[in-house]
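Q: Can someone sanity-check these two? First one:
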Amino acid sequence: MRDFGDRFATLLLVLKRADKGGETVFPYLQRTITQEVGDVLLWINLDRTGKGNTNSLHGACPILEGEKIAATLWLRERGQPMMHNPDGMELFDVEALARPDVVFL
């Protein structure tokens, strides 16, 4: 995976929710997220300089009843146009990441 760089962002989609347990916990944020089927959770793993974002540390709580099925997508830094900031001061170009779509404004 080194060819693709670090995980820039993580996307977690819940396809089946556990009857009890299975939450996603972010200990540094003191947050526990309970997702419903079809919910998507997206978080950024790197800060704007390319260093690891400690707030992205997470874990899955134990499944106490039933089962949980989830799909994970890792967005990696290499080969991503938004990762090339024209001013060179930061790792990624915020404008490319969150540019408003003028068609819908």
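And here is the second, same format, sequence then tokens:
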Amino acid sequence: IAPGGSVTISINDDPERALEVESGGTLLATLSAQGIFIPSACGGKGTCGVCRCRVRSGGGALLPTEVSHIKLREARAGFRLACQVKVKEDLVIELPPEVFDVRRWTCSVRSNHNVATFIKELILELPQGEEVPFRAGGYVQIECSPHEVRYRDFEIAAEYAADWERLDLRRLVSRVDEPVSRAYSMANYPGEKGIIMLNVRIASPPPNLPDVSPGQVSSWIFGLRPGAEVVISGPYGEFFARETDREMCFLGGGAGMAPMRS
């Protein structure tokens, strides 16, 4: 095991995809730095179980944080959470082919307004001539930089302001000391080129736990103004309607309406 220096990550038995990287980081972060974006809905905290990949060699033993996400037979086959695997030695891994189609864009906020008391509709403009080739039900990950956001600075539509005052939400502050990311489903339909629309519900503390920290990324998004830069990666997702002649019934509510609108 190399405590420092470089190691090799072999991917899908393809010599052209092999990476020489610095050791020490997580597999998720290391691949991201090399332009390979594995989905991670929790931002690499080990809670969502989305960043699964197969580690055929290296990576150490399965960690307690992975046990609830990786079944025994999957663990025997080498499946791990990329956010929990430390890059300390040469690795041989397998990744789904669609991962290599994921890209990263720096977008500009076109608008960010309330569509409900705790939900904003964020519209991002992609760079000129760019588009995200997603399907309805797909999602992107938003990268959130370290910040301090005060709820008193949020622009809340007049028809919803009274509820914010009644619940004393203006007192809240979100402080984030390191970059984090979260996943949000697209609310626009795939044929709308040049933009990404997201419905974001702010994760404020529950009334019976007022001292719990508010949502890191949702708080940051609520404070975004037109013209601000936002970095996204995608498209990701497996929640797609199958091609069929059968009648379909869709159930959703709140921000969960986004994939259905799409």
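A (reply): Looked at the second one. DSSP finds five helices and 13 strands in the chain. The domain at 6-99 is CATH 3.10.20.30 (Ubiquitin-like (UB roll)).
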